[in-house]
Amino acid sequence: MRNKKKELHSVSRSYPWPSIIRLSRYIKVPYKKVVLTRKNILRRDAYKCAYCGRSDLPLTIDHIIPKARGGSDSWDNLVCACTFCNNKKGDRTPEEANIDLITQPFKPSHIMFIKNVVGRLDENWKPYLYMS
Ligand SMILES: [Zn+2]
Question: pTM of the full predicted structure?
Answer without folding.
Answer: 0.70
